[in-house]
Amino acid sequence: MNSETLNTLDSYSKNKYKYGFVTEIDAEKPKKGLNEDTIKFISQKKNEPGWMLDWRLKAFSKWKKMKEPKWANLSFPEIDYQDIYYYSAPKGFEKKPKDLSEVDPKLIETYNKLGIPLEEQKVLAGVAVDVVFDSVSVATTYKGELEKLGIIFCSIGEAIQKHPDLIKKYLGSVIPPGDHSFSALNSAVFTDGSFVYIPEGVHCPMELSTYFRINAENTGQFERTLIIADKGSYVSYLEGCTAPKRDDNQLHAANVELIALEDAEIKYSTVQNWYPGDEEGKGGIYNFVTKRGLCAGKNSKISWTQVETGSAITWKYPSCILKGDNSIGEFYSVAITNNFQQADTGTKMTHIGKNTKSKIISKGISLGKSQNTYRGEVSFLRKADKARNYTQCDSLLVGNQCGAHTVPYIDSKNNTAVIEHEASTSKINEDQLYYCRQRGLSHEEAVSLIVNGFCKQVLQELPMEFAVEAQKLVSISLEGSVG
Amino acid sequence: MNIQDNYQKNRKNIFFSENKDIESHREKLINIFENDSFDRKNNESLKNINLKNFIDFKYKYLIPEETSVINNNQENNYSIVSVNGKCSTFKDDKIEITKILDEDYNDFSENNTIEKNDHFVNLNSLFLNSGFKIVIKRNNNIRIKISNIVTDDDLTIFQKNNIICQEGSSLSLIEEYENKNNSTSNILNVIKLEKNSQLNHFLIQDNSSNHNLIITSHSSCKKDSTYTQKVYNFSEGYVRNFHYSELIETNSEADLQGIFFLKDNNTSNNKTFVKHLAEDCKSNQVYKGILNDRAKATYFSNTHVDQVAQKTEGYQLSKGILLSDNASYFSKPELKIYADDVKCSHGSTIGPIDENAIFYLRSRGMSKIAATKILISSFINEELSSIDNEQMSEIIQKKLVRYLSKVK
Question: Do B313 and B402 belong together in one domain?
Answer without folding.
Answer: no
